[in-house]
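Session log. Operator J.P. requested a structure for one protein chain; no other inputs attached. Running the standard single-chain path with token output.
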Amino acid sequence: MEKLGIIGCGWLGEKIAKSAIYKYKIFSTTTSEEKLTTLKNQNFNPYLVKFSDHEDLDYENLFSNVDIIIITIPFSQRTPVTVLKQRFKNIIKFIGDFKGQLFLCSSTGIYPQVDEIVTENSIDENLLNQNIWTIEKLMKSTFPQINILRFGGLMGADRFFSKYYQNKEIAEPNQVVNHTHFEDICKVFLKLIDLKINGEPFNIVSPEHPTKIEVFNCQTKNICKKSDGEKSGKCVSSEKLINKINYKFIHPNPAKF
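Structure written below.
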């Protein structure tokens, strides 16, 4: 049985581990002592590892025997880039001289808010969010084999769009959404691993792009129809992924998450 290491076994990492444990022996990291017990009870072989944002640290080579690594540690566009670079330099030290299949969980927040269809290479590098782009470049230059997966807003289970707007006005209600259901993320990982894909960037976003108000009305009022008004915002395309691995989304419409 191959060994899969998940760096950062939080909300998403834990779901990936649950979906993969029937096929892979799981190893994981967490920064929380409380989470250690939860992960141990699920046979995710956790290690308590903290990646400092402020100083270089030395790490035991805990993942030396894994075959595949998935990095789910977030890197927000709102976090200072110097902090992010230090964090990921420590992650690089932790991974070491890894030559296996490697995945970085990134975000469609890398793209500017433009009124057009956006693909992995359609936006000029100078217009990308520089925090996210800096980390992607750092990881790509260190590990040429890395696959960079850009997710939309993470949804599914206890996360659904209307939950966050129960008593709150929706800004730009006619702006389209770019959402990703965690079940699709888990399935995509398994397919990419099976197909031995390396060195590729992929957008992982549900192919339908209703507006915010359409999603809200469908989820709260069961009124699932197109609203009046001109749509705005970027539509992040997953066509490359769909064509490359012949993928069919489990959850194509964010309004029905």
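Operator note: Residues 3-156+178-207+235-251 form a domain with the Rossmann fold fold (CATH 3.40.50.720).
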